[in-house]
């Protein structure tokens, strides 16, 4: 039994009482030890003792990615450097990476949360976990690793890459749980096929996939191709790493947020106002147990909504819907907002195309042009040109019908879109380059 599991089924009032106590302690500590928080709170005319109930949180200022960059690398740490036992960092496609730190207790908390997350996804003691999340500064590999050990499972720390060898290991060691990004999972399946290995005949029962947006259609494809039950796991380095929220394998209907450690809010990304439960907006997190790197009202830029209805698994924690995308990945094509995952859903309805795609955006005479590049099978690729043109037209028509945007569709040769070993690059935006 993973300790802290009892928090997962608490009645609302009991959970909120714990949250308030932990929140107040976090605020006191951050105020006392991090000059950034003290200055920012003062600017907003608020002190930790003004927060008497959870709704008072709205009085607190937000923390944004730029604040992390401005305090690079260790400026927001709330403990002396000698108490920090681990550093992680997010790659930072633009500007400096964001650096986060953990005390020994933080690492232990994270391991427990990841053990709980793996449990929710269907793993248990005795399972062999093939962990293909990248090890290193990225939180995926080590996050799953410590959780798996805490659970008492056997972990294969294979990391991302060297894909053929991974398939051989799967055949030889017989892992029952797969952890990887959804896009790398598809690549694993593809390489297995090329090696004449039927994934469905391996021993996998469950897959715990995350670190990037993926659609319901992609879930069906992965479950069908790999012969396992797939759940979504969410997290971000700033808040901890993987294990902030996870779907249960019983329902697979939204990700349970570990509310005994993180308080979620949904805000309107434009105005910053808190939105009522159930509305779609930007997810904001406050950590309430972290020591080295507490985050108070951190704006994730991830778009989702919260669901409070009870779940068949018995967990009472609030759920978040699958993240549709990040505010900074949202494409605005001639005034219509669209996320790559929505285009993915449309593509996956069409059986002739493969689940490998990339979006390119450029500007022509001040108009935004979206090109959807999608792979087709070798067999189709050798078909006559007219058939392919018809297929392109049909895909463009579907995109227009479902999403209301005009896109150019280009069917491309099998394997011509780069495969990911971690997070897939879905959008090339020539307007930003
Ligand atoms: O991606 C942590 C992680 C590792 C989560 C392994 C799950 C599994 P970062 O590299 O800091 O951390 O990236 C965080 O990735 O703000 C989201 O935009 C995106 N993301 C993470 N999980 C999901 C998910 C890890 N399940 C950023 N669905 C987040 C959609 C996700 N997006």
From TrEMBL:
The keyword Transport does not apply. Transmembrane segments: none annotated. Residues 335-431 form the AMP-dependent ligase C-terminal domain. Keywords: Ligase, Nucleotide-binding. It catalyses: 2-phenylacetate + ATP + CoA = phenylacetyl-CoA + AMP + diphosphate. Its EC number is 6.2.1.30. GO terms for biological process: phenylacetate catabolic process. The keyword Zinc-finger does not apply. InterPro entries: Adenylate-forming_Reductase (IPR051414), AMP-bd_C_sf (IPR045851), AMP-dep_Lig_C (IPR028154), AMP-dep_synth/lig_dom (IPR000873), ANL_N_sf (IPR042099), PA_CoA_ligase (IPR011880). GO terms for molecular function: nucleotide binding; phenylacetate-CoA ligase activity. Pathway: Aromatic compound metabolism; phenylacetate degradation. Residues 79-286 form the AMP-dependent synthetase/ligase domain. Catalyzes the activation of phenylacetic acid (PA) to phenylacetyl-CoA (PA-CoA). Belongs to the phenylacetyl-CoA ligase family. Monomer. This is Phenylacetate-coenzyme A ligase.
